[in-house]
Write a structure and sequence with these properties.
Blueprint: E1 2-5, E2 12-14, H1 15-21, E3 30-32, H2 41-46, H3 49-65, H4 67-77, E4 83-88, E5 91-95, H5 105-120, E6 125-130, H6 134-143, E7 149-156, H7 162-169, E8 175-180, H8 184-196, H9 198-203, E9 206-208, H10 214-229, E10 239-244, H11 249-259, E11 266-271, H12 276-283, H13 307-316, E12 324-328, H14 331-343, H15 350-360, E13 368-373, H16 381-388, H17 396-399, E14 409-411, H18 415-424
Parallel strand pairs: 5-13, 6-7, 6-9, 7-8, 8-14, 10-11, 10-13, 11-12
Antiparallel strand pairs: 1-2, 1-3, 4-5
Bound molecules: pyridoxal-5'-phosphate (PLP).
């Protein structure tokens, strides 16, 4: 697989290089030079999730890594269930919430861990990642206990849920966590600064596990196929997928799935109050505003990193921007979405509720809707209990960490402070 740098097109790399580098020169994102078309989509849709995922990822990576390696990596990474639930007439929920850290990020993080483990072998590496809540947990768990990899996670202090924090800041060992006195976008900037520091980068073999890493995106393509596969064949003609979006990795993966031949009619980019993309789609102007804290904190992103990949996909596929409907969902609407779902016996959480709300307001006659459930309701226990006035019991993964001590270091938005910590790991 060959990829090119979106900021410096002459930089061309293999998949292995793209995974190890994370970002290209000038902080450019890597993008596939060629997106394979799957000729046998109907057949693929008949297969079980893991078999189908092996076939999809082999089509993308087989030439470089070998089919057997890809198969082993996929089977190791995707060793937990996912589900498609009918929610109401013509609307389905794609539940990506049954992995080890109860969020969709388990798919990408676990596949990335497989890739790095295979590609780096005995070399030491340091994974540096910023999280708005769920990436940190997924990455920390995917790499926890590996001898040759240290993981450093930055997150905005007080802006992620208590249980989210407990899930990854209590591990210790090869996992270091930093609570940054700022917002997610500040954390993301600190990561970029670290990658710009060539001396640091070499000294600790820096690597990224953010959704800017192409390995994560490729893994996420697979579950969009599962969504369509589990919809009755008669309802597959005009499928609309609503994606609760923050950094826009998930939407990029969905559009890559379409580019490979998955029949999806259009996408809804559902955001919370941080609506840079819906405003951009309506006006053509890219003008991020300061990030606002919301109940759907994993989507509190006002400068989404993956957007240039979506622009590139639209360009290379000659797709019109109207393929994506931008919908901003405010806090009252998020709560209404959560309540509406609960009224029809579907327990959700703020991120999924935003996707569901946006879908309800956009779905037209003849279309079938799918919304992505990106986190387990219990991960947002406080919000869910408050809005729905119910009590929920924690699943084991969360109950086990609820009383553990947070091991994070507090830091300011100060690169030299972070640099000192990283050099000392
Ligand atoms: C990360 C995350 C999102 C946003 O996904 P992007 O790929 O960054 O757009 C949505 N919901 C939850 C629960 C998340 O953790």
């Amino acid at each position: 697989m060959e990829l090119y740098n979106l900021k410096k097109n002459e930089q061309r790399v293999s998949f292995a290089q793209a995974v190890k580098l994370g970002l290209g020169d000038e902080q450019g994102l890597f993008f596939p030079s060629y997106i394979p078309q799957l000729g046998n989509v109907d057949e693929l849709l008949e297969q079980d999730f893991v078999t189908r995922s092996v076939n999809i990822l082999t089509a993308l990576l087989g030439d470089e890594l070998g089919n057997d390696t890809v198969e082993t990596m996929v089977r190791n990474a995707f060793n937990f269930p996912l589900a498609v639930q009918p929610v109401r007439d013509g609307v389905y929920a794609l539940e990506l919430t049954h992995g080890p850290t109860l969020a969709f990020k388990d798919f990408g993080a676990r596949f990335l861990a497989q890739c790095l483990n295979h590609l780096c072998k005995d070399e030491k590496a340091t994974i540096l990642t910023a999280t708005s809540g769920d990436t940190g947990a997924a990455v920390a768990h995917a790499f926890y206990g590996l001898d040759n990899v240290n993981v450093a996670v930055l997150y905005p202090k007080g802006k992620i849920s208590v249980l989210q924090e407990k899930l990854f800041c209590t591990l210790g060992g090869n996992i270091s966590t930093y609570s940054v006195n700022g917002r997610f976008d500040d954390c993301q900037q600190l990561v970029k600064d670290a990658f710009d520091d060539l001396e640091l980068k070499q000294a600790i073999s820096l690597n990224s596990a953010n959704s800017i890493n192409i390995a994560r995106l490729l893994a996420q393509i697979c579950y969009f196929f599962e969504a369509v596969a589990k919809i009755p064949a008669a309802e597959r003609k005009e499928v609309v997928v609503s994606v609760p979006s923050g950094n826009f990795g998930d939407l990029t993966a969905g559009m890559l799935a379409k580019a490979m031949g998955l029949p999806i009619k259009r996408f809804i980019a559902a955001t919370n109050l941080n609506d840079t993309v819906p405003r951009y789609l309506a006006t053509g102007e890219w003008s991020p505003e300061p990030t606002v804290a919301t109940r759907s904190n994993a989507m509190d992103v006002s400068a989404p990193n993956n957007w240039p990949r979506i622009e590139e996909l639209l360009k290379v596929k000659f797709w019109d921007k109207s393929l994506i409907t931008g919908v901003k969902v405010d806090e009252a609407q998020t709560e209404a979405g959560l309540k509406d779902l609960y009224a029809i016996d579907y327990l959700c959480e703020p991120h999924g509720a935003i996707a569901s709300y946006a879908l309800n307001n956009s779905l037209q006659a003849g279309e079938t809707g799918v919304f992505l459930c990106t986190a387990h309701p219990s991960k947002f226990q406080e919000s869910v209990e408050e809005v729905l006035d119910i009590h929920i019991t924690l699943p084991k993964a969360l109950a086990d960490v609820a009383d553990k001590e947070i091991l994070s270091k507090d830091i300011e938005i100060d690169f030299s402070e972070l640099r000192g910590h990283l050099m000392a790991i």
